[in-house]
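Justification of resources, computational component.

The compute hours requested in this renewal are based largely on the per-chain cost of generating structure records like the one below. Each record pairs the submitted sequence with a full structure-token output. That output is archived, and it is also reused by downstream analysis tasks.
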Amino acid sequence: MRELRIIEVKSEIGAGTRGSSLGVDAIKIAALDFGSRYFKKYKSVEVPNENHLLLETAGNQFAKRVSGVLTMVERIAEEVAKTLKNKEFPIILSGDHSCSAGTISGIRKAFPKSRLGVIWIDAHSDIHSPYTTPSGNLHGMPLAIVLDEDNIESKINVPDQETVNYWYQLKNVANIAPKIKYSDLVYIAMRDSESPEQYLLKKHKIKNFPPSEVRKRGVERVALDTLKYLQNCDLIYVSFDVDALDSAISKGTGTPVPHGITEREAGNLLARLMCSEKVCGFEMVEVNPTLDRENLMAENAFEILLRATNALIND
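The structure output for this chain reads:
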């Protein structure tokens, strides 16, 4: 049985839509509504956020609020590394997905010589850089950060020098760049990407199990194939963005996409993945109760979180 520690990150400065900083508390309310003692049962810590920057101008056009995101990535990396060094399993509940760059940096900081695999369960590929982003929102860039990827070949933007400097610092948090290899990345449920991202997906032949394949082959098979694909990795990090779920059930998130997986498929998938001894961290992101009705997204997210946690503690 693993000792678990919840890391709360109520940061939303990497997102374009407001409200994901409230996601952690919405999940806690869902737990209360279910009569669960989940958040009493496990130790938790909250990472201080930089959401005050939302009251100021976004700043850098192609990397909005990048100074604050850099601060968050460094803080999260520190907390995750400390948790792992204490031989605890980190469950990170975050606002927007830019936070995951901090989690991955923290894992590599704790285990600098280990090869890290990443399972990215998300509707989006999140592999833009300031040179390719259509929005400037950093929650679309975490994988480019940890892959040390600029994608200059697909360049459509000309970032200013300040943005370039911050971007360099982001990619080099924990003094390791790149932090993961393309060959050690697997997407599940990804179905929405822009042409600069598609260029990288094709160039590096990145593994993807779209929702149609999850449905056709079944969750068990996809989970087994994913773990087999990452068999040469020493450690595995699992990131779950709630927009991996179909937009019919994921209204309470900033960027819902149709034709996703169901809540049951997500729960079964995570339960199976968490059984792997290599999995060293789990993160859930992008619950936004301001876009929801009756806290349904957070309730679905909590049930999925519970499935993942139960698989961990019963391994």
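Residues 23 and 271 are 22 Å apart (CA to CA). The first helix runs from residue 23 to 33.
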